[in-house]
Amino acid sequence: MSAESSPKIVIVDESPIRAAILEEGLREAGFTSVVHISEMQSLLARIYALDPDVIVIDLENPSRDVLEQMFQVSRAVRRPIAMFVDQSDAASIQASVDAGVSAYIVDGLKKERLKPILDLCISRFNAFSKLQDELDRAKSALEDRKVIDRAKGILMKLKGLTEEEAYVLLRSTAMREKKKIGEIAQSILTASELLK
Amino acid sequence: MSTPLHIGFIPLVDAAALIVAVDKGFAAAEGLDVTLVREVSWSNVRDKLNIGMFDAAHLLAPVAIASSLGLGHVKVPIVAPFNLGLNGNAITVSPALHAAIMAEIDGDPFDPMATALALARVVATRRQSGAEPLTFGMTFPFSTHNYQLRFWMAAGGVDPDEDVRLVILPPPYMVDSLRNGHVDAFCVGAPWNSIAVDLGIGRILHFVSDILISAAEKVLAVRRDWSEKNPDVVTALVRAHIRAAEFIEEPENRAEAARILGQTERIGVDPEVIQRTLDGRLKIASDGTMRESGRYLLVGREGAARPDPAQAAWLYAQMVRWGQTALRPDALRTAMGVFRPDLYDIASGHRGKASDASDAIGAFAGPAFNPEDIAGHLAAFRIGRWKP
Fold it and tell me: Rounded to a whole number, what is the distance in Å from the CA of A104 to chain B's nearest CA?
């Protein structure tokens, strides 16, 4: 069976980017049989049809509760067990919850074989959050810059300032009011909209 | 110096006492600095409580028991010193299923025996015509929703494992699933039944209090070892919950409570919809038909907040009836030991009255529940996975 060669891994994740990052990592590590499910409708039927050895799901996904149904003996085709059952390895449980990922292993696959998969998921999930944070920061920095540029333009026009003077005015006001320059710039834009 | 606590919850109205305890300052007044963490799945709440990321949690009462018994998951002893709510769920059906049941009903539509017998006839007719079995959504294998649905339909002769499909759906997906025909009915807590009714895609067939007069729904759950190491914190936390429940149960405070619960970072729905649940006055059909019940959701009144071990025994009996575990005397004792009226009494400052076990549940069918004789009790039910 396939578990002896490369275990079949199903990734349940509504984020296509994160799933792609995870899938790429798993393939690079030699796990060639990876399927991504992004549609939560009839999730159990999809999983049963794929018959995976390992299921990976993000913790932001409400459908995690749907997977619990697989532990009910009467319905299960095969009987997966949750990763968290391995109480001998508290550190990796903590790490996976921190990273926001949970893995389920199906009976028949040795626990040692899950460990590298889980470790990889944890590191890829963490890398994704870091990337997401950086993107968010870059996006808000870019937006701040646009807002500041427009506010400078308004000050230059209304008060006859040079660009540098307009910037100094923004900065000193921000310091006095203990606010970010972007916030002061935004309030100038709002005020100028109102006064149009 | 205040004690920092992280407490997980699912955005449902029966987290009311917890949310109000924090947002109305009752917890702070007890010296607790609580950070509420909104979660998306019961699995997350359970796991984060188990590994200590949460100090306490709003938890399905049967999950607290299952966790203490090691059913379906890792064994972590949990105790419940405060019952967050009795009842509070409803069974909502699609307009088509409602019409089919009403076409077959012989009796009052609020009589669960009449609707269950009608459901059995609908199921039989569908089977004869080769139609797909009806699908019912519920929230978790170890949930009152699961047991309430099963108890109701089995009383009418419908085997929940053979005659219909029971599927787990996260509460936020219930309404969509009913709309697109993925399920024909569901059993869920507030506000989801009202949302389906308001959208005109579902009709509330039963309040679960039609099926069982009293059912422990959600509990305030803490790890047993943590409660033993932090007895004063547990007492302070329970006291804050008692104050909050008293606040919520005063009719003149309902609007404020509903507003607190409705905040985006709490339950995040219209306070008017939340208040319907707290008042037990619900619109049950899109034509505006109203139904009122004094037993829709009890947040502390009539002694509802004091954990009742007989309730835990009944939930354990359902786990046995539906094949989730075997019947063992030691497991029954463990299950009953999860519900801790003694810890509640320490916080309330007086010794509460134990319920009369014979009417603690008040089910519409079968004999009165007796925690001392679960085998005898279960033997009275024809449908079930447990065999004497």
Answer: 11
Contact at CB, B51 and A82, closer than 8 angstroms: no
Contact at CB, B167 and A73, closer than 8 angstroms: no
Cβ contact A85–B74 (<8 Å)? yes
Residue among B51, B168, B323 whose CB faces A93 most closely: B51
Closest by CA to B307, choosing from B327, B271, B337, B277, is B337
Instruction: Report chain B residues whose CB lies below 8 A from the CB of A72.
Output: 72, 141, 324
Domain range summary for chain B, segments of one domain joined by +: 3-86+216-268+302-367
Q: Which of B118, B124, B175, B179 is nearest to B152 (CA)?
A: B118
Q: Measured between CB atoms, which of A41, A65, A93 is closest to B41?
A: A65
Q: How far lies A93's CA from each of A67, A129, B26, in Å?
A: 18, 18, 34
Judging contacts by C-beta atoms under 8 Å, the chain B residues touching residue A41 are: 182
Question: Among A65, A84, A89, which would you mutate to test the B interface (most chain B Cβ atoms within 10 Å of its Cβ)?
Answer: A65
Helix (H) or strand (E) holding B100: helix B95-104
pTM score, two decimals?
Answer: 0.87
B139 in contact with A, Cβ within 8 Å: yes
Domain B3-86+216-268+302-367 fold? D-Maltodextrin-Binding Protein; domain 2 (3.40.190)
- pLDDT per residue rounded down to tens, chain B (388 residues): 689 999 999 999 999 999 999 999 999 999 999 999 999 999 999 999 998 999 999 999 999 999 999 987 788 999 999 999 999 999 999 999 999 999 999 999 999 999 999 999 999 999 999 999 999 999 999 999 999 999 999 999 999 999 999 999 988 889 999 999 999 999 999 899 999 999 999 999 999 999 999 999 999 999 999 999 999 999 999 999 999 999 999 999 999 999 999 999 999 999 999 999 999 999 999 999 999 999 999 999 999 999 999 999 999 999 999 999 999 999 999 999 999 999 999 999 988 776 655 578 999 999 999 999 999 999 999 999 998 7
Q: Please provide the DSSP assignment of A173-193 as one string.
A: HHHHTT--HHHHHHHHHHHHH
Mutation target to probe the A interface, by most A beta carbons within 10 A, among B6, B44, B223 is: B44
Domains of chain A (ranges; CATH) run 2-133 (3.40.190.80), 138-195 (1.10.10.10)
Nearest CA in chain A to B177: A41
A101-106 β-sheet, strand order: A34-37, A9-12, A54-58, A101-106, A80-82
